[in-house]
Amino acid sequence: MPEGDTVWQTAQRLHTALAGAPLTVCDLRVPRLATADLTGRRVLEVVPRGKHLLTRIEGGLTLHSHLRMDGAWYVYGAGERWRGGPHHQIRAVLATAEHTAVGYRLPVLELLRTAEEDRAVGHLGPDLLGPDWDPDEALRRLLADPSRPLGKALLDQRNLAGIGNVYKSELCFVLRLSPWLPVGDVPSPERLVAVAKRLLEVNRNRRARVTTAQSRPDRRLWVYGRPGRPCLRCGTPVRAADQGRAGQERTTFWCPRCQPGPQGPSPASGSSTPGN
């Protein structure tokens, strides 16, 4: 599930494959970009901003994409078979003489002037994995609405950019905090911000996301995706419930024993595990 660490990794792959070389193919398969042709222009860099990707291109242009739930960029060598999904799911193809980057199922794809990137990402808070990281500003934004439940505050990209549904649940567990605790009641909130950054940093170079320090696939995460299964710390069944505004709910996972305090509604039975 794409979160700040996944997007950071994707940006590194795209930058390594495309930066510095002119585009030999530019095929943007969304109606409003159907006539856009960037062929011959050099890719200058690919940078992440929270959960957004900014591909900066010669001539002052930026291709902005967002992966949301299941979007993905794949990089292939010249002549390599594309394996990211059916061709009708392809939204973008950027190729140089040596590599091809293919964007599948991209819900957001737009071409901006680089000088106007703030139109797409200017609302974001400090990026947990970015050069603009400012823990004091992130903390100020988190605490601006002290009555807001912690889980909802962490998912709000205007507070700090990069946390999705996985890290929201895992961070609350690691700190033994209920996701329904008002953010203003969080003890030592500066530690919350510091641990959030550390969790993403230690995972940005890993293939598999790990928060437990265990390598077994079924034990890499403390609570996320484990409803009804024993808590890895105390054995209590992990609970799951929707959290968020109507129509924008995200399933939160937590251990009611390890994370005392306000508890959510009845466990979400048979629901999916929507993400970012």
Write down the domain tally: 2
Quick one: overall form?
Answer: globular
The tally of strands reads: 10
Tell me the radius of gyration.
20 Å
CATH topology of the largest domain: Helicase, Ruva Protein, domain 3
* Spatial ordering of strands, largest sheet: 1-6-7-5
> From N to C, what is the helix and strand string?
HEEEEEEEEHHHHHEE
Overall pLDDT: 93
Beta-strand content estimate: 15-25%
Query: Helical stretch count?
Result: 6
- Tell me about the largest β-sheet: 4 strands, antiparallel
Low-confidence stretches: 268-276
Helix content: 10-25%
Name the CATH class of the largest domain: Mainly Alpha
| CATH hierarchy: architecture of the largest domain | Orthogonal Bundle
Q: Which structural class is indicated by helix and strand composition?
A: alpha+beta
Query: Quaternary state, please?
Result: single chain
End-to-end distance:
8 Å
Protein name: DNA-(apurinic or apyrimidinic site) lyase
Family: Belongs to the FPG family.
Region (Disordered): 254-276
Catalytic activity: 2'-deoxyribonucleotide-(2'-deoxyribose 5'-phosphate)-2'-deoxyribonucleotide-DNA = a 3'-end 2'-deoxyribonucleotide-(2,3-dehydro-2,3-deoxyribose 5'-phosphate)-DNA + a 5'-end 5'-phospho-2'-deoxyribonucleoside-DNA + H(+)
